[in-house]
Design goal:
By secondary structure, the chain is of the alpha+beta class. The chain contains 8 helices and 26 strands. The chain starts with a helix and ends in a 5-residue tail after the last strand. It binds 2-oxoglutaric acid (AKG). 2-oxoglutaric acid binds next to strand 19, strand 25 and strand 26. InterPro entries: AlkB-like (IPR027450), AlkB-like_sf (IPR037151), ALKBH2 (IPR032852).
Length: about 600
Protein backbone atom coordinates (compact mmCIF):
# COMPACT_ATOMS: atom_id res chain seq x y z
CA UNK A 1 0.00 0.00 0.00
CA UNK A 2 2.66 2.61 0.86
CA UNK A 3 4.26 1.96 -2.54
CA UNK A 4 0.99 2.63 -4.37
CA UNK A 5 0.52 5.81 -2.46
CA UNK A 6 3.98 7.00 -3.45
CA UNK A 7 3.36 6.26 -7.12
CA UNK A 8 0.15 8.22 -7.27
CA UNK A 9 1.85 11.18 -5.67
CA UNK A 10 4.84 11.36 -7.98
CA UNK A 11 3.55 10.12 -11.34
CA UNK A 12 0.69 11.77 -13.18
CA UNK A 13 -2.18 9.43 -13.97
CA UNK A 14 -2.16 8.17 -17.57
CA UNK A 15 -4.43 10.27 -19.77
CA UNK A 16 -7.09 8.81 -22.08
CA UNK A 17 -6.12 8.73 -25.77
CA UNK A 18 -7.35 11.43 -28.13
CA UNK A 19 -10.78 10.50 -29.43
CA UNK A 20 -9.92 11.71 -32.93
CA UNK A 21 -7.46 13.97 -34.72
CA UNK A 22 -7.69 17.65 -33.72
CA UNK A 23 -8.78 20.15 -36.38
CA UNK A 24 -5.23 21.57 -36.66
CA UNK A 25 -2.19 19.55 -35.59
CA UNK A 26 1.42 18.83 -36.55
CA UNK A 27 4.33 16.53 -35.88
CA UNK A 28 7.02 19.21 -35.76
CA UNK A 29 7.38 22.85 -34.87
CA UNK A 30 8.59 23.58 -38.41
CA UNK A 31 5.28 22.29 -39.80
CA UNK A 32 3.42 24.73 -37.56
CA UNK A 33 5.71 27.68 -38.33
CA UNK A 34 5.50 27.12 -42.09
CA UNK A 35 1.77 26.42 -42.30
CA UNK A 36 0.02 28.29 -39.53
CA UNK A 37 0.24 32.06 -39.68
CA UNK A 38 -0.70 32.47 -36.00
CA UNK A 39 2.53 30.90 -34.79
CA UNK A 40 5.85 31.42 -36.56
CA UNK A 41 8.27 31.22 -33.67
CA UNK A 42 10.89 28.46 -33.87
CA UNK A 43 12.05 29.19 -30.32
CA UNK A 44 10.14 30.42 -27.34
CA UNK A 45 6.48 30.26 -26.58
CA UNK A 46 5.23 33.72 -27.58
CA UNK A 47 4.81 34.70 -31.23
CA UNK A 48 4.53 38.46 -31.59
CA UNK A 49 3.67 40.59 -34.55
CA UNK A 50 3.46 44.39 -34.57
CA UNK A 51 3.74 44.66 -30.81
CA UNK A 52 1.00 42.21 -29.83
CA UNK A 53 0.81 38.44 -29.57
CA UNK A 54 -0.69 36.23 -32.28
CA UNK A 55 0.14 32.82 -30.83
CA UNK A 56 0.99 31.48 -27.38
CA UNK A 57 2.44 28.01 -26.97
CA UNK A 58 1.93 25.95 -23.80
CA UNK A 59 4.35 23.12 -23.13
CA UNK A 60 6.06 21.50 -20.16
CA UNK A 61 7.56 23.63 -17.39
CA UNK A 62 4.45 25.28 -16.12
CA UNK A 63 4.84 27.70 -13.24
CA UNK A 64 3.11 27.43 -9.85
CA UNK A 65 -0.68 27.67 -10.20
CA UNK A 66 -0.68 27.46 -14.02
CA UNK A 67 -3.92 25.67 -14.85
CA UNK A 68 -6.48 24.50 -17.42
CA UNK A 69 -9.91 25.13 -15.90
CA UNK A 70 -13.59 24.91 -16.89
CA UNK A 71 -12.83 22.23 -19.48
CA UNK A 72 -10.10 24.39 -20.99
CA UNK A 73 -12.21 27.53 -21.35
CA UNK A 74 -9.96 29.22 -18.80
CA UNK A 75 -6.20 28.73 -19.07
CA UNK A 76 -3.72 30.38 -16.70
CA UNK A 77 -0.08 30.61 -17.67
CA UNK A 78 3.03 32.61 -16.88
CA UNK A 79 3.94 34.67 -19.92
CA UNK A 80 7.28 35.43 -21.41
CA UNK A 81 9.99 33.05 -20.21
CA UNK A 82 12.75 33.54 -17.63
CA UNK A 83 11.39 30.67 -15.50
CA UNK A 84 13.81 28.31 -13.71
CA UNK A 85 12.69 25.30 -15.65
CA UNK A 86 12.66 27.07 -18.99
CA UNK A 87 16.17 28.41 -18.41
CA UNK A 88 17.51 24.97 -17.69
CA UNK A 89 15.58 23.41 -20.59
CA UNK A 90 17.04 25.85 -23.06
CA UNK A 91 20.43 25.40 -21.59
CA UNK A 92 21.44 22.40 -23.66
CA UNK A 93 24.95 22.17 -22.24
CA UNK A 94 23.46 21.96 -18.76
CA UNK A 95 25.09 24.98 -17.10
CA UNK A 96 23.06 26.40 -14.25
CA UNK A 97 21.18 29.52 -15.28
CA UNK A 98 19.62 31.77 -12.71
CA UNK A 99 15.94 32.59 -12.99
CA UNK A 100 15.30 36.32 -12.92
CA UNK A 101 12.30 38.56 -12.38
CA UNK A 102 10.03 39.21 -15.32
CA UNK A 103 9.38 42.88 -15.97
CA UNK A 104 6.47 44.67 -17.61
CA UNK A 105 8.99 46.00 -20.18
CA UNK A 106 10.10 42.50 -21.25
CA UNK A 107 9.17 42.17 -24.88
CA UNK A 108 6.82 39.18 -24.51
CA UNK A 109 5.16 40.48 -21.35
CA UNK A 110 4.69 43.88 -22.97
CA UNK A 111 3.10 42.30 -26.04
CA UNK A 112 0.73 40.17 -23.94
CA UNK A 113 -0.26 43.24 -21.92
CA UNK A 114 -1.03 44.95 -25.22
CA UNK A 115 -3.45 42.14 -26.18
CA UNK A 116 -5.11 42.55 -22.78
CA UNK A 117 -5.44 46.34 -23.19
CA UNK A 118 -6.82 46.02 -26.73
CA UNK A 119 -9.03 43.00 -25.90
CA UNK A 120 -7.35 41.36 -28.89
CA UNK A 121 -7.72 37.59 -29.36
CA UNK A 122 -4.73 35.27 -29.71
CA UNK A 123 -4.35 31.60 -30.49
CA UNK A 124 -3.33 29.04 -27.86
CA UNK A 125 -1.34 26.02 -28.95
CA UNK A 126 -0.16 23.09 -26.82
CA UNK A 127 2.20 20.18 -27.27
CA UNK A 128 2.12 16.64 -25.93
CA UNK A 129 4.12 17.72 -22.87
CA UNK A 130 1.50 20.17 -21.64
CA UNK A 131 0.42 18.29 -18.55
CA UNK A 132 -3.02 19.86 -17.78
CA UNK A 133 -4.54 18.92 -21.17
CA UNK A 134 -6.90 16.01 -20.44
CA UNK A 135 -6.07 13.79 -23.44
CA UNK A 136 -2.88 12.04 -24.49
CA UNK A 137 -1.81 13.72 -27.76
CA UNK A 138 0.95 11.19 -28.31
CA UNK A 139 -1.68 8.44 -28.66
CA UNK A 140 -2.11 9.74 -32.23
CA UNK A 141 1.46 10.95 -32.66
CA UNK A 142 0.26 14.52 -32.42
CA UNK A 143 3.15 16.69 -31.24
CA UNK A 144 1.52 20.13 -31.40
CA UNK A 145 -2.08 21.18 -31.74
CA UNK A 146 -4.09 24.37 -31.89
CA UNK A 147 -6.69 24.90 -29.15
CA UNK A 148 -8.38 27.97 -30.63
CA UNK A 149 -8.88 31.70 -30.08
CA UNK A 150 -8.73 33.08 -26.55
CA UNK A 151 -8.78 36.53 -24.97
CA UNK A 152 -6.82 37.63 -21.93
CA UNK A 153 -9.32 38.43 -19.19
CA UNK A 154 -6.98 39.03 -16.23
CA UNK A 155 -3.32 39.79 -15.84
CA UNK A 156 -1.33 40.24 -12.66
CA UNK A 157 2.12 39.64 -11.22
CA UNK A 158 3.04 37.28 -8.42
CA UNK A 159 5.99 35.85 -6.56
CA UNK A 160 7.01 32.35 -7.40
CA UNK A 161 9.56 30.36 -5.43
CA UNK A 162 12.80 29.69 -7.27
CA UNK A 163 15.69 27.39 -6.41
CA UNK A 164 18.21 29.15 -8.59
CA UNK A 165 17.64 32.70 -7.40
CA UNK A 166 19.41 33.94 -4.24
CA UNK A 167 16.26 35.60 -2.90
CA UNK A 168 14.44 32.29 -3.32
CA UNK A 169 11.67 33.85 -5.38
CA UNK A 170 11.08 35.66 -8.65
CA UNK A 171 8.36 37.90 -10.10
CA UNK A 172 6.20 36.23 -12.76
CA UNK A 173 3.55 37.87 -14.89
CA UNK A 174 0.47 35.70 -15.11
CA UNK A 175 -2.26 35.74 -17.73
CA UNK A 176 -5.75 34.25 -17.59
CA UNK A 177 -6.97 33.34 -21.10
CA UNK A 178 -10.64 32.76 -21.81
CA UNK A 179 -12.02 30.74 -24.73
CA UNK A 180 -13.92 32.89 -27.25
CA UNK A 181 -17.42 31.49 -27.15
CA UNK A 182 -18.22 32.29 -30.80
CA UNK A 183 -16.18 29.21 -31.70
CA UNK A 184 -18.75 26.84 -30.20
CA UNK A 185 -17.60 24.15 -27.79
CA UNK A 186 -13.86 23.33 -27.77
CA UNK A 187 -13.04 20.44 -30.10
CA UNK A 188 -11.59 18.29 -27.32
CA UNK A 189 -14.86 18.37 -25.43
CA UNK A 190 -16.87 16.97 -28.36
CA UNK A 191 -17.82 13.32 -28.73
CA UNK A 192 -16.08 11.01 -31.22
CA UNK A 193 -18.86 11.37 -33.80
CA UNK A 194 -18.15 15.10 -34.18
CA UNK A 195 -14.46 14.69 -34.53
CA UNK A 196 -12.19 14.08 -37.45
CA UNK A 197 -11.97 10.54 -38.65
CA UNK A 198 -8.50 9.12 -38.81
CA UNK A 199 -6.88 7.81 -42.00
CA UNK A 200 -10.23 7.55 -43.71
CA UNK A 201 -10.09 6.41 -47.31
CA UNK A 202 -13.80 6.46 -47.86
CA UNK A 203 -14.10 9.86 -49.55
CA UNK A 204 -16.09 11.32 -46.69
CA UNK A 205 -16.51 15.02 -46.86
CA UNK A 206 -14.03 16.75 -44.59
CA UNK A 207 -15.31 17.44 -41.13
CA UNK A 208 -12.59 19.89 -40.25
CA UNK A 209 -14.44 22.86 -41.61
CA UNK A 210 -17.64 21.96 -39.84
CA UNK A 211 -15.76 21.68 -36.58
CA UNK A 212 -14.48 25.19 -36.89
CA UNK A 213 -17.44 26.97 -38.40
CA UNK A 214 -17.86 29.80 -36.05
CA UNK A 215 -21.50 29.94 -35.07
CA UNK A 216 -22.65 31.73 -31.96
CA UNK A 217 -22.80 29.18 -29.18
CA UNK A 218 -26.22 28.88 -27.58
CA UNK A 219 -24.75 26.66 -24.86
CA UNK A 220 -22.51 29.37 -23.54
CA UNK A 221 -21.64 29.15 -19.85
CA UNK A 222 -21.16 32.89 -19.65
CA UNK A 223 -21.90 34.67 -16.47
CA UNK A 224 -22.01 38.37 -15.76
CA UNK A 225 -18.67 39.80 -14.70
CA UNK A 226 -18.45 39.75 -10.90
CA UNK A 227 -18.28 43.28 -9.59
CA UNK A 228 -16.23 42.59 -6.48
CA UNK A 229 -13.12 41.03 -8.02
CA UNK A 230 -10.91 44.13 -8.35
CA UNK A 231 -9.87 46.35 -5.41
CA UNK A 232 -7.56 49.39 -5.29
CA UNK A 233 -4.33 49.38 -3.33
CA UNK A 234 -4.00 52.04 -0.61
CA UNK A 235 -0.35 52.63 -1.53
CA UNK A 236 -0.40 52.81 -5.35
CA UNK A 237 -4.16 53.20 -6.05
CA UNK A 238 -3.92 50.55 -8.78
CA UNK A 239 -6.63 47.92 -8.84
CA UNK A 240 -5.60 44.28 -8.47
CA UNK A 241 -7.90 41.28 -8.79
CA UNK A 242 -8.68 39.04 -5.85
CA UNK A 243 -6.83 36.05 -7.31
CA UNK A 244 -6.35 33.85 -4.24
CA UNK A 245 -8.83 32.32 -1.86
CA UNK A 246 -6.67 33.26 1.14
CA UNK A 247 -6.78 37.06 0.73
CA UNK A 248 -6.59 40.04 -1.61
CA UNK A 249 -3.14 41.63 -2.06
CA UNK A 250 -1.61 44.31 -4.24
CA UNK A 251 -0.28 42.57 -7.37
CA UNK A 252 1.51 45.52 -8.91
CA UNK A 253 5.27 44.71 -8.68
CA UNK A 254 6.16 48.42 -8.98
CA UNK A 255 4.32 49.17 -5.71
CA UNK A 256 5.99 49.09 -2.28
CA UNK A 257 2.97 47.08 -1.06
CA UNK A 258 3.36 44.36 -3.73
CA UNK A 259 2.35 40.93 -2.43
CA UNK A 260 1.10 42.50 0.78
CA UNK A 261 -2.34 41.80 2.23
CA UNK A 262 -4.41 44.61 3.80
CA UNK A 263 -3.22 43.26 7.18
CA UNK A 264 0.30 44.39 6.21
CA UNK A 265 1.59 40.79 5.97
CA UNK A 266 2.87 39.07 2.87
CA UNK A 267 0.68 36.48 1.18
CA UNK A 268 1.38 33.00 2.53
CA UNK A 269 3.53 30.45 0.68
CA UNK A 270 0.68 28.08 -0.16
CA UNK A 271 -2.03 29.75 -2.13
CA UNK A 272 -4.98 28.55 -4.12
CA UNK A 273 -7.39 30.30 -6.41
CA UNK A 274 -10.48 32.22 -5.42
CA UNK A 275 -13.21 30.15 -7.15
CA UNK A 276 -14.97 33.27 -8.39
CA UNK A 277 -11.79 34.33 -10.13
CA UNK A 278 -11.67 31.08 -12.09
CA UNK A 279 -15.13 31.30 -13.61
CA UNK A 280 -15.89 32.23 -17.21
CA UNK A 281 -16.74 35.86 -16.70
CA UNK A 282 -18.72 37.05 -19.68
CA UNK A 283 -19.20 36.48 -23.39
CA UNK A 284 -15.85 36.94 -25.16
CA UNK A 285 -16.83 37.78 -28.73
CA UNK A 286 -14.50 37.25 -31.66
CA UNK A 287 -14.19 40.29 -33.93
CA UNK A 288 -15.63 39.59 -37.38
CA UNK A 289 -12.21 39.57 -39.03
CA UNK A 290 -11.22 36.57 -36.88
CA UNK A 291 -14.25 34.46 -37.63
CA UNK A 292 -12.84 32.32 -40.41
CA UNK A 293 -9.22 33.16 -39.79
CA UNK A 294 -8.02 30.11 -37.87
CA UNK A 295 -7.84 27.50 -40.63
CA UNK A 296 -4.82 28.09 -42.88
CA UNK A 297 -5.70 29.15 -46.40
CA UNK A 298 -5.14 26.64 -49.17
CA UNK A 299 -2.25 27.80 -51.40
CA UNK A 300 -3.12 28.74 -54.97
CA UNK A 301 -2.25 25.65 -57.01
CA UNK A 302 -2.35 27.21 -60.47
CA UNK A 303 -1.66 30.93 -60.01
CA UNK A 304 -2.30 33.52 -62.66
CA UNK A 305 1.01 33.98 -64.51
CA UNK A 306 2.16 30.45 -63.64
CA UNK A 307 4.74 31.47 -61.02
CA UNK A 308 4.71 28.76 -58.35
CA UNK A 309 8.00 29.66 -56.68
CA UNK A 310 6.87 32.75 -54.79
CA UNK A 311 7.20 32.97 -51.00
CA UNK A 312 3.53 31.96 -50.64
CA UNK A 313 4.40 28.68 -52.35
CA UNK A 314 7.14 27.90 -49.86
CA UNK A 315 4.48 27.77 -47.12
CA UNK A 316 2.96 24.53 -45.94
CA UNK A 317 -0.37 22.81 -46.27
CA UNK A 318 -3.32 22.16 -44.00
CA UNK A 319 -5.07 18.90 -44.82
CA UNK A 320 -8.82 19.49 -44.70
CA UNK A 321 -9.38 15.76 -44.34
CA UNK A 322 -7.34 14.95 -41.23
CA UNK A 323 -6.25 18.36 -39.90
CA UNK A 324 -2.50 17.75 -40.28
CA UNK A 325 -0.21 20.69 -41.01
CA UNK A 326 2.76 19.85 -43.19
CA UNK A 327 5.69 21.54 -44.89
CA UNK A 328 5.83 21.76 -48.66
CA UNK A 329 8.48 19.10 -49.06
CA UNK A 330 7.93 18.07 -52.70
CA UNK A 331 8.48 20.39 -55.64
CA UNK A 332 5.59 19.24 -57.81
CA UNK A 333 2.80 18.71 -55.26
CA UNK A 334 1.47 19.13 -51.76
CA UNK A 335 0.92 15.88 -49.95
CA UNK A 336 -0.50 15.24 -46.50
CA UNK A 337 2.02 12.95 -44.76
CA UNK A 338 -0.78 11.48 -42.66
CA UNK A 339 -3.67 10.64 -44.99
CA UNK A 340 -1.69 11.00 -48.26
CA UNK A 341 -4.15 13.38 -49.93
CA UNK A 342 -2.30 15.18 -52.79
CA UNK A 343 -2.73 18.38 -54.77
CA UNK A 344 -0.60 19.06 -57.85
CA UNK A 345 1.03 22.45 -58.38
CA UNK A 346 0.77 23.79 -61.91
CA UNK A 347 3.43 26.27 -62.90
CA UNK A 348 5.06 27.33 -66.14
CA UNK A 349 8.67 27.16 -67.28
CA UNK A 350 10.54 30.37 -66.43
CA UNK A 351 13.21 31.99 -68.59
CA UNK A 352 16.43 33.36 -67.08
CA UNK A 353 17.18 35.59 -65.36
CA UNK A 354 14.02 35.20 -63.31
CA UNK A 355 14.69 38.50 -61.54
CA UNK A 356 17.50 40.97 -61.84
CA UNK A 357 20.08 41.47 -59.14
CA UNK A 358 19.07 44.15 -56.60
CA UNK A 359 21.24 47.25 -56.70
CA UNK A 360 21.85 46.92 -52.98
CA UNK A 361 23.95 43.79 -53.55
CA UNK A 362 27.57 44.81 -53.36
CA UNK A 363 30.76 42.95 -53.97
CA UNK A 364 33.28 42.71 -51.12
CA UNK A 365 36.45 41.11 -52.28
CA UNK A 366 39.09 40.94 -49.60
CA UNK A 367 41.23 38.44 -51.38
CA UNK A 368 43.84 38.86 -54.07
CA UNK A 369 42.31 38.62 -57.53
CA UNK A 370 44.19 37.71 -60.69
CA UNK A 371 43.43 39.62 -63.90
CA UNK A 372 40.56 37.96 -65.81
CA UNK A 373 41.49 35.56 -68.58
CA UNK A 374 39.34 35.13 -71.65
CA UNK A 375 38.65 31.76 -73.19
CA UNK A 376 37.36 30.64 -76.56
CA UNK A 377 34.52 28.29 -77.24
CA UNK A 378 35.22 25.76 -79.95
CA UNK A 379 31.93 23.98 -80.64
CA UNK A 380 29.43 26.82 -80.76
CA UNK A 381 30.45 28.35 -84.08
CA UNK A 382 31.28 31.76 -82.60
CA UNK A 383 34.20 33.98 -83.28
CA UNK A 384 35.73 35.91 -80.40
CA UNK A 385 35.84 34.97 -76.74
CA UNK A 386 33.01 32.88 -75.33
CA UNK A 387 33.61 33.97 -71.78
CA UNK A 388 36.09 34.99 -69.11
CA UNK A 389 37.44 33.51 -65.94
CA UNK A 390 38.45 35.34 -62.78
CA UNK A 391 40.54 33.59 -60.16
CA UNK A 392 40.61 34.61 -56.49
CA UNK A 393 43.50 33.28 -54.44
CA UNK A 394 42.86 32.48 -50.80
CA UNK A 395 45.55 33.59 -48.32
CA UNK A 396 48.35 31.20 -47.27
CA UNK A 397 47.86 28.90 -50.26
CA UNK A 398 44.56 27.58 -48.91
CA UNK A 399 43.09 27.31 -52.40
CA UNK A 400 41.55 29.17 -55.31
CA UNK A 401 38.07 30.23 -56.36
CA UNK A 402 37.48 30.51 -60.12
CA UNK A 403 34.44 32.31 -61.47
CA UNK A 404 33.78 31.27 -65.09
CA UNK A 405 31.32 33.53 -66.92
CA UNK A 406 30.04 33.07 -70.44
CA UNK A 407 28.51 35.55 -72.82
CA UNK A 408 24.86 35.50 -73.81
CA UNK A 409 25.23 33.23 -76.86
CA UNK A 410 27.32 30.66 -75.05
CA UNK A 411 24.70 30.67 -72.31
CA UNK A 412 22.17 29.01 -74.60
CA UNK A 413 23.28 25.66 -73.23
CA UNK A 414 22.56 26.80 -69.68
CA UNK A 415 19.16 28.15 -70.84
CA UNK A 416 18.25 24.78 -72.26
CA UNK A 417 19.39 22.89 -69.13
CA UNK A 418 17.45 25.30 -66.91
CA UNK A 419 14.32 24.61 -68.93
CA UNK A 420 14.85 20.83 -68.78
CA UNK A 421 15.30 21.00 -65.00
CA UNK A 422 11.98 22.80 -64.60
CA UNK A 423 10.07 20.43 -66.88
CA UNK A 424 11.49 17.33 -65.24
CA UNK A 425 10.89 18.69 -61.75
CA UNK A 426 7.24 19.45 -62.47
CA UNK A 427 6.44 16.15 -64.20
CA UNK A 428 8.07 14.17 -61.38
CA UNK A 429 11.00 12.77 -63.44
CA UNK A 430 13.32 14.75 -61.19
CA UNK A 431 12.26 14.35 -57.55
CA UNK A 432 13.25 17.61 -55.88
CA UNK A 433 12.59 17.31 -52.17
CA UNK A 434 13.33 19.09 -48.91
CA UNK A 435 15.24 16.45 -46.94
CA UNK A 436 15.58 16.21 -43.15
CA UNK A 437 18.63 18.01 -41.82
CA UNK A 438 21.26 15.80 -40.25
CA UNK A 439 21.98 17.93 -37.21
CA UNK A 440 19.12 19.73 -35.57
CA UNK A 441 18.97 21.67 -32.31
CA UNK A 442 18.02 19.41 -29.42
CA UNK A 443 15.20 21.82 -28.67
CA UNK A 444 13.42 21.25 -31.96
CA UNK A 445 11.34 18.12 -31.76
CA UNK A 446 10.32 16.18 -34.83
CA UNK A 447 11.89 16.41 -38.25
CA UNK A 448 13.50 19.59 -39.52
CA UNK A 449 13.73 19.96 -43.29
CA UNK A 450 16.27 21.90 -45.32
CA UNK A 451 15.24 25.34 -46.47
CA UNK A 452 15.66 24.43 -50.19
CA UNK A 453 14.77 21.49 -52.46
CA UNK A 454 17.42 19.08 -53.71
CA UNK A 455 18.24 15.81 -55.36
CA UNK A 456 21.53 13.93 -55.40
CA UNK A 457 22.82 11.87 -58.33
CA UNK A 458 25.84 9.60 -58.79
CA UNK A 459 27.82 8.80 -55.64
CA UNK A 460 26.04 9.16 -52.33
CA UNK A 461 26.43 12.51 -50.60
CA UNK A 462 25.45 12.54 -46.95
CA UNK A 463 25.21 16.31 -46.44
CA UNK A 464 21.54 16.17 -47.44
CA UNK A 465 19.11 13.35 -47.85
CA UNK A 466 21.51 10.57 -46.99
CA UNK A 467 22.57 7.69 -49.20
CA UNK A 468 19.19 6.03 -49.70
CA UNK A 469 17.81 8.92 -51.74
CA UNK A 470 20.68 9.15 -54.25
CA UNK A 471 19.86 8.31 -57.90
CA UNK A 472 22.67 6.63 -59.90
CA UNK A 473 23.68 8.54 -63.05
CA UNK A 474 22.26 5.80 -65.30
CA UNK A 475 18.78 6.57 -63.94
CA UNK A 476 19.31 10.31 -63.42
CA UNK A 477 17.17 12.78 -65.42
CA UNK A 478 18.86 14.18 -68.54
CA UNK A 479 19.00 17.72 -67.08
CA UNK A 480 21.43 16.58 -64.37
CA UNK A 481 23.73 14.69 -66.73
CA UNK A 482 23.77 17.70 -69.09
CA UNK A 483 24.59 20.04 -66.19
CA UNK A 484 27.54 17.87 -65.14
CA UNK A 485 28.82 17.70 -68.74
CA UNK A 486 28.56 21.49 -69.16
CA UNK A 487 30.49 22.09 -65.90
CA UNK A 488 33.27 19.76 -67.07
CA UNK A 489 33.38 21.47 -70.48
CA UNK A 490 33.54 25.00 -69.03
CA UNK A 491 36.38 24.04 -66.67
CA UNK A 492 38.29 22.61 -69.59
CA UNK A 493 37.74 25.73 -71.71
CA UNK A 494 38.56 28.21 -68.97
CA UNK A 495 41.26 26.45 -66.95
CA UNK A 496 42.59 23.90 -69.43
CA UNK A 497 42.12 21.03 -66.97
CA UNK A 498 40.10 17.83 -67.40
CA UNK A 499 37.86 16.85 -64.51
CA UNK A 500 35.48 13.93 -64.25
CA UNK A 501 32.81 14.35 -61.61
CA UNK A 502 30.83 11.40 -60.29
CA UNK A 503 28.30 13.21 -58.09
CA UNK A 504 25.90 16.14 -58.65
CA UNK A 505 23.77 17.80 -55.98
CA UNK A 506 20.96 19.74 -57.66
CA UNK A 507 19.46 22.45 -55.46
CA UNK A 508 16.33 24.45 -56.27
CA UNK A 509 15.39 27.61 -54.42
CA UNK A 510 12.09 29.45 -54.30
CA UNK A 511 11.74 33.07 -53.21
CA UNK A 512 13.51 33.65 -49.84
CA UNK A 513 15.09 30.19 -49.72
CA UNK A 514 18.84 29.73 -49.33
CA UNK A 515 21.58 27.28 -48.37
CA UNK A 516 23.07 28.05 -44.96
CA UNK A 517 26.82 28.25 -44.22
CA UNK A 518 28.52 24.86 -44.52
CA UNK A 519 31.70 23.21 -45.80
CA UNK A 520 31.65 20.28 -48.17
CA UNK A 521 33.14 17.77 -45.79
CA UNK A 522 32.10 14.45 -47.31
CA UNK A 523 34.50 11.61 -46.65
CA UNK A 524 36.48 10.87 -49.85
CA UNK A 525 35.72 14.27 -51.42
CA UNK A 526 38.07 15.29 -54.23
CA UNK A 527 39.82 18.69 -54.16
CA UNK A 528 37.67 20.35 -56.86
CA UNK A 529 34.00 21.25 -56.37
CA UNK A 530 32.21 23.15 -59.17
CA UNK A 531 28.69 24.52 -59.52
CA UNK A 532 26.55 25.74 -62.41
CA UNK A 533 24.09 28.54 -61.55
CA UNK A 534 20.78 28.93 -63.37
CA UNK A 535 17.92 31.40 -63.04
CA UNK A 536 18.07 34.33 -60.65
CA UNK A 537 21.40 35.74 -59.49
CA UNK A 538 22.73 34.77 -56.09
CA UNK A 539 25.38 35.90 -53.64
CA UNK A 540 27.91 33.33 -52.51
CA UNK A 541 29.75 34.28 -49.31
CA UNK A 542 32.87 32.64 -47.94
CA UNK A 543 34.10 33.00 -44.37
CA UNK A 544 36.70 31.33 -42.18
CA UNK A 545 35.54 28.48 -39.96
CA UNK A 546 34.99 29.79 -36.42
CA UNK A 547 37.88 27.71 -35.06
CA UNK A 548 40.30 29.83 -37.13
CA UNK A 549 38.97 33.19 -36.00
CA UNK A 550 40.67 34.64 -32.90
CA UNK A 551 38.28 34.70 -29.93
CA UNK A 552 37.88 38.47 -29.67
CA UNK A 553 37.58 39.07 -33.42
CA UNK A 554 34.29 39.30 -35.26
CA UNK A 555 33.82 36.78 -38.04
CA UNK A 556 33.15 38.64 -41.27
CA UNK A 557 32.67 37.35 -44.80
CA UNK A 558 36.11 37.00 -46.39
CA UNK A 559 34.72 37.18 -49.89
CA UNK A 560 31.45 37.51 -51.78
CA UNK A 561 30.89 36.46 -55.38
CA UNK A 562 27.83 37.27 -57.48
CA UNK A 563 26.65 34.18 -59.36
CA UNK A 564 24.58 34.83 -62.48
CA UNK A 565 22.72 32.56 -64.87
CA UNK A 566 25.22 30.31 -66.68
CA UNK A 567 28.17 31.02 -64.35
CA UNK A 568 30.34 28.15 -63.16
CA UNK A 569 32.07 28.61 -59.81
CA UNK A 570 35.01 26.34 -59.06
CA UNK A 571 36.43 25.78 -55.58
CA UNK A 572 39.91 24.37 -56.03
CA UNK A 573 41.94 22.83 -53.20
CA UNK A 574 40.98 20.92 -50.05
CA UNK A 575 41.83 24.04 -48.03
CA UNK A 576 38.74 25.83 -49.37
CA UNK A 577 36.60 23.33 -47.44
CA UNK A 578 39.00 22.72 -44.52
CA UNK A 579 39.43 26.41 -43.61
CA UNK A 580 36.34 28.11 -45.04
CA UNK A 581 32.59 27.66 -45.17
CA UNK A 582 30.22 29.06 -47.76
CA UNK A 583 26.56 30.01 -48.11
CA UNK A 584 24.45 30.82 -51.16
CA UNK A 585 21.65 33.40 -51.00
CA UNK A 586 19.63 33.62 -54.22
CA UNK A 587 17.57 36.71 -55.14
CA UNK A 588 14.67 34.55 -56.18
CA UNK A 589 13.91 31.34 -58.11
CA UNK A 590 17.20 29.62 -58.90
CA UNK A 591 18.57 26.16 -59.64
CA UNK A 592 22.17 25.10 -59.04
CA UNK A 593 23.99 21.90 -59.98
CA UNK A 594 27.13 21.30 -57.89
CA UNK A 595 29.49 18.59 -59.13
CA UNK A 596 32.14 16.70 -57.13
CA UNK A 597 34.39 13.73 -57.26
CA UNK A 598 33.75 11.43 -54.31
CA UNK A 599 35.69 8.19 -53.79
CA UNK A 600 33.31 5.38 -54.75
CA UNK A 601 32.01 3.30 -51.79
CA UNK A 602 33.21 5.89 -49.27
CA UNK A 603 31.87 5.52 -45.75
O1 LIG B 1 25.21 27.09 -55.65
C1 LIG B 1 24.48 26.73 -54.74
O2 LIG B 1 23.29 26.95 -54.74
C2 LIG B 1 25.01 26.04 -53.48
C3 LIG B 1 25.91 24.93 -53.73
C4 LIG B 1 26.59 24.43 -52.51
O3 LIG B 1 27.05 25.19 -51.70
C5 LIG B 1 26.70 23.01 -52.28
O4 LIG B 1 26.10 22.21 -53.02
O5 LIG B 1 27.39 22.63 -51.33
Amino acid sequence: MPVLHLLSETQPLPKPPLKAFPPIWAQSRQEVCESFEWFRSYQGGVYQNNGSVKGYFLSAFSAQRDCFQCGGKIVISHGGGKADSISSAQNVKGQAKTAVDQRAQDSSVQALLENYRKNQPLVLLIDDKYEPFPFDLSSREVYMTVLGFYKIIHTWAEYQSSNSNTSGRVVRYKFAFQWCEDQGEPWWSKGPSDAIRSNSNNNQVSVVTSLLCLLPDVRSHSQPKPANLYFPCAACSEKSPRVYRQAWACLNPACSAFWTMPSGQSLPENLDYNTEFLTVIDHRALPLSYRDALLPKTPVLAPHGGVTTSYAHTRGWHCRKCGRLSCRSAWELYQCPNCKVCASILGRVRRPPCVDIPLAYSLHIAIQRLAPRFFAHSDIGMSGPAGRCQTFILPDGKGKIHLIQTNRLANLEADQIFEAYQKQASDGTLLLRRWPLRSVSLLLRGQFLTNYFSQNSGETYHYVGGGAETVPFVHAPSSIVQARDLIQKRIHEALGTQHKFNEVLSAAYMEQQKMAFHSDSEHGLGPVVAGLSMGSPALMHFRLLSKYVPRNEQRANAMTVVLRHGDVLVMEGAGVQDFYEHTVVPCNFRIAATARWIEPHHA
